[in-house]
Amino acid sequence: MTATGVLTTVVTTSTPAHAHPLWRRWLLTREAAIIALLAIVVMVALATVRSFDSPLTLTYLLRDIAPILLIALPMTLIIVTEEIDLSVASILGLSSVLTGVLTAAGAPLPVAALVAIVAGAVCGVINGFLVTVVGLPSLAVTIGTLALFRGIAVGLLGTTAITEFPEFWTDLAKSLIPGTPIPAIMIPFAVLAIAFAILLHFTPFGRALYAIGLSRETAHFSGIDVARTKFTLFVLSGAVSGFAGVYFTLLYSNARGDNATGLELQVIAAVLLGGVSIFGGRGALHGVIAGVLLIGTLGSALRLAGVSGEVINIITGVLLILSVVSAAVLAWARGRRVAAIGRRRLRRT
Questions:
Q1: φ/ψ (deg, to 5) at 297
Q2: What is the pTM of this model?
Q3: Domains detected in the chain
Q4: Residue 3 has pLDDT above 50, yes or no
């Protein structure tokens, strides 16, 4: 075999995805499958569940999943780099408590909200420092800070709750976009979603995230500052979680240290269900948004149908397991197919 023949074989088999038409690369993906499944769930719910087509149902659905939608944005970027942040719900709880404590002390709500968001960013700085500077695994770090931030939140308020907030701000948190049943919180979410989508999919920073997820060592030797990049993501995660905590507090008019307990599992489940690989290097933001909507829609429809919360959790867990298993099976099948094509071409040359 000549050197030219070997080079041709390597080049033609190393980028198989680009040998397919654009429509196939867009439609035959996990993200497209999640969007299709979401559409099926919505149609079935509309046809079988009484009152699911009510505008009020859409309003409450979007209000309830808004914190998950917000936190899932930076979580997507973190998991793409093969890291994880389990402390997001405790950061939300801490920011909720700070909002309540400062408001009760007489601080204007915008000032209290700003302090809560900055506190969330500081929590992200702590996580980022321990992961990128000290070099500890993000799983262990964020399990520890989950308990730390939750303990601080509970310690500030104990078993009490603050339920008095300025009516203007609580009404704003519950308000709708004029003429629609869509909550106004979807406006800042849309702005953040566009910003994160551009950052992930259309900038060198986003390409660096995928490179880090595929191989941290290769990314480092390619000139990417891996530590600084991951540190930035943890700070973003903390700040967005702080913002979600302010919204959560005003929506329910309730500041408690145990607010949003367990929310981190819902966020991670939605991100993985949306097509992001837990091993890093793969995923798209539109798939994650569809994953959050799918879990929220399915849960809302089942609750309206009288299904218990335990059964809903079981169904969600099964969906997540199937999603992870199907990704592994598809990756294995794709690898076998590419290897078979390579062997056939080698035999021909």
A1: -65, -45
A2: 0.87
A3: 21-312 (1.10.3470)
A4: no
